[in-house]
Amino acid sequence: MYKLYIKQAWAILKENRIISSLSIAGTALSIAAIMLVVLVYQVIYADYAPENHRFRTLYVDAFQAGSKTEQGSNRGQMGVRVLRECLYDLKIPEAVTGISMMQMPVNLPGQKIVDKYPVKYTDTAFWKVFDFDFISGAPFTASDFDSGIHRAVMSESAARKVFGAADVVGRTFRINFEDYTVCGVVKDVSMAASSAYAKIWMPYTVNKALMEANVGYYEATTGAFTACILARSSADFSAIRNEAQRALARFNTTLKNTKTDFLAGPITQMDKLMGGNGFYPVKTAEFIASRGGLILFLLVLPALNIVGITLTQFRKRRSEIGVRKAFGAPFRVIVEQVLVENMLYSLIGGVIGLFLSYGLLSLCKDLLISNDVEFTTGMLLKPGTFLLAFLFTLLMNLISVGIPAIRSARMPIVTSLNDVD
Amino acid sequence: MKHLFKILWNQRRQNGWIFAELSLVFFALWLICDLFIVRIYTYHQPLGYNVENCWRLSFGNYPSTAAEYVNDTSITKGKAMLQIMERMRQVPQVESVCVAFYSSPYSFGNSWTSVLPCSADSTRFTDKNFHRYVVSLDYFDVFRVKDKSGMKINTGRNSQQLHDGILVTPELEREFFGGLSAVRRPVKLPNETNDIKIAAVTNSIRPDDFKKPEAALIQLMNDKDIIRQSDEYGYSPNELEVTVRMKSNMTQDEMNEFIAQGNGFSAGNLYVNGASSWLDQRDNILRDSFQRMTVFSLIAIFTLLNVFFGITGTFWLRIEQRRAETGLRLALGSTHRHIGWLFTSEGWLLLTSVLPLALVVLFNFCYMELPDTNQMDMSAWRFILGFLITFVLMGTMIGLGSWIPARRAMKLQPAEALHYE
Fold first, then answer.
1. Which candidate, A177, B28, B99, B123, has a CA 20 to 30 Å from the CA of B317?
2. In this complex, do A214 and B18 lie within 8 Å of one another by their Cβ atoms?
């Protein structure tokens, strides 16, 4: 039965070229626009190497230290104290890592160059939370970290820029007149993986400024660190949040005149997607309303066009439907026929739209995301993307042909046979 | 014309769809046009400062292991920084050097304070906070900030006057004193026992390219103040924004070479290890605004394309339906071109019929103060310009959309058309 519908649809398509192309173009435009929105979010927020577990990670990006007695507070990031005395001791998570990022000038011994590279100062748990692809060598070890040994992991492109080659394990570079040895080289990380992104990674124990405790300022609780907490499963999120808040409360009792707070954190990747940063609670309803409204607009406007066209088309086929009903075709079958026929157009439109959305994404990359972000196939091609595109195509099909289909199937046989306009 | 109205009215049921679509599109497009009018207008207003050729310096400290390390505790961080700044001023390629405390244009941070005029109605301002700039005197040379009459700040004023008092922007002058001059009037700052006199009024300053001029005050730091910030309060030279204005245009690489030349710029154990352009920082700060504009342009293009497809589709079908009528017209002496224009005019008339509804809806919209009036008041010309641009855009799309069907109508032969009937 379906083969017949498809054959019929194909014949109609060839007969009314302009109108069918307009239907297909309308669907393609809608799917292209919707998938562009989906892709932009996907590129920024979906799982891809090295951040493969974003949806079971909690992010502690916000920190506030205030006086227990007076007004005034400092909002920013946490100091090493908070990492060591609160977060590292959490039992429920799989791993907790503290991260600080700075731009540092890197050169070879004897060179005088001030090129700056993004350097991440972190700990050994970092390599557990993120899945880096090591081309050669290995990450710095726990003993390197504990003793503040000057060993660093470098990205492939940074290695080429600094040393002129990628096989540089064991070689030395300098930051601020101090030597560091390369212990591992990794595949480049896209800037879109913002938690893991850097060009050089080192144990933070080598950075005296980071480790310095400014006891006079809020008892050394503030600093330059954020943290990522890898949970065993996302079901643990509320348990981990509670544990973290309890740990912080305990920590606060040890402080003389300072109280610290994670504010709206630790936050999930979904919170980040909705614009949360840990300092203020996420406005979920507002987000859903605005993005949902946009998607609705992108679906409904072309659908309106197609409905208009379809209604007119149906007036022409009224007698055909009348005959089928006279011969006993039930309501369901008539509607089904219309839906399946239109599905052909929707599918063609959907496929074209999907290709267009990828094209638009690369064209507008600089304007919508950033020119510095490199796209990887892991970012762009996910089974979920195709599924979503198909679902929206289906939705488009239903919206644009649903009403005309039901109306024509409902029409009394006599009226349709007489083909009264 | 009357004839067209009659045709439109007769087909009002069919035209209902298009009318609804055009109304929705008109509303959406007006909102987008309004956003662009505000943004583009604001962008082109004078900023009040200039950041071209301005580079922010970053500093490092020689570690004790370096050959350059100096064991002299008399040169504090603050003193070393000032010495380096003085040395840079002597270099021929440098025009001027200044330091600002989170007060450079496009800076990430800012500081706010309450300030009260010493006048009868000062209670109006007790709960208000104003943006406070804390800068060294060369700030005005480096960033080309002039006084209200367009002259350099130190014309006719000695630096002592400026250091003892504060400067205000014309917007603050207007808020405090109405149309009167603010110069030599006293104001009260918190934590200051004595009143401070306003020494000068600067030109209007806009926080960034998309905001309107702000009411702000500027306090000057002399060398003693600078040393206090760094040595007593513990702010590192990297937190104090030291900016150098170069005489000529330089690329990042050229600037890196300049910094690294010879012995570099150093004093005590402090040395300059890099420079970043304030234009890059400007890109960071403005990125979100540009992205929003991109998204809205894409939505506008999407909407206009839909109008195009919708009009083409509807008119194409209509011409098919009205083939008999067209044949009759041709037989009775109408020209082919006239037929074509008939359809296009029908489209434009439809658009015009949307105008009254749009006018009423949007007028109420503006009355309820829903569009953004933060950066620009809703004036008559802003409202009308939005209308005009939207009308022209949609009219163009309708013209284009009816062109293909109109051409088809024009090609019709009367005998053929009448035959179909």
1. B28
2. no
**DSSP secondary-structure letter at A205?**
G
Q: Which residues on neighbouring strands pair with residue A106, listed in sequence order? A: A175
Tell me if the bond preceding A50 is cis, omega within 30° of 0: yes
Q: Which of A307, A284, A352, A342 is nearest to A33 (CA)?
A: A352
Strands B130-136 and B216-221: parallel
- In three-state form (DSSP H/G/I as H, E/B as E, the rest C), the secondary structure along B37-53 is HHHHHHHCCCCCCCCCC
How many other CB atoms are there within 10 angstroms of residue B44's CB atom?
9
> Which residues 383-412 in chain A show a CB within 8 A of chain B?
none
Question: What secondary structure letter does DSSP report for B188?
Answer: E
Instruction: State the Cα angle at B125 between B121 and B130, rounded to 5°.
Output: 140
Q: Evaluate whether A140 touches A202 at the Cβ level (below 8 Å).
A: yes
Task: Please list the residues that pair with B97 across neighbouring strands.
Answer: B244
* H or E stretch at A401: helix A383-410
pLDDT attached to residue A98: 94
Beta bridge partner(s), residue B113: B130
Cβ-based contacts of B421 with chain A (< 8 Å)? none
Which chain A residues are within 8 Å of B260, Cβ to Cβ? 112-114
Residue B103 has pLDDT above 80, yes or no: yes
Per-chain mean pLDDT for chain A: 86
| B303 contacts in chain A (CB < 8 Å) | 301
* Subunit contact A304:B28, Cβ cutoff 8 A: no
Percent of chain B with pLDDT over 70: 94
Look at residue A99 and tell me whether its pLDDT is greater than 90.
yes
- Residue A379: its H or E element: helix A377-380
CA closest to A111 among chain B residues: B260
Does residue A211 belong to the interface with chain B, where contact is any CB pair within 8 Å?
Answer: no
Under a CB-based contact definition with an 8 Å cutoff, are residues B235 and A214 in contact? Answer: no
* Interchain contact A16–B (C-beta under 8 A): no
Residue A421 has pLDDT above 50, yes or no: no
State the DSSP string of A155-194: EHHHHHHHHSSS--TT-EEEETTEEEEEEEEE----TTST
Q: CB atoms < 10 A from the CB of A365, how many?
A: 17
Asked if A74 has any chain B CB less than 8 Å from its own CB, the reply is: no
Distance CA A307, CA A313 (A): 10
Instruction: Point out the least confidently predicted range of A79-88, A347-356, A407-416, B236-245.
Output: A407-416
Bridge partners (DSSP) listed for residue B147:
B202
Q: Is A296 exposed, middle or buried (0-12, 13-18, 19+ CB in 10 A)?
A: exposed
Of B63, B68, B310, the CB nearest to A178: B63
Question: B68 to chain A: which residues are within 8 Å by CB?
Answer: 177
Cβ contact B68–A105 (<8 Å) = no
The whole-number average pLDDT for the span B199-223 is 90
Q: Using a CB-CB distance cutoff of 8 angstroms, which residues of chain B are in contact with residue A22?
A: 309, 312-313, 316
Q: Is this prediction's pTM over 0.95?
A: no
* Window from A344-353, B196-205, B370-379 with minimum mean pLDDT: B370-379
CB of A113 within 8 Å of a chain B CB? The answer is yes
| DSSP letter string, B209-233 | TTS----EEEEEE-HHHHHIIIIIS
What is the complex's ipTM, to 2 decimals?
Answer: 0.82
**Chain B residues within 8 A (CB-CB) of chain A?**
17-18, 20-21, 24-25, 28, 58, 60-63, 65-66, 68, 234, 256, 259-260, 264, 273-276, 287, 290-291, 294-295, 298-299, 302-303, 305-306, 309-310, 312-314, 316-317, 321, 404
Q: Are A156 and A107 in contact (CB under 8 A)?
A: no
* Confidence check: pLDDT of B13 > 70: no
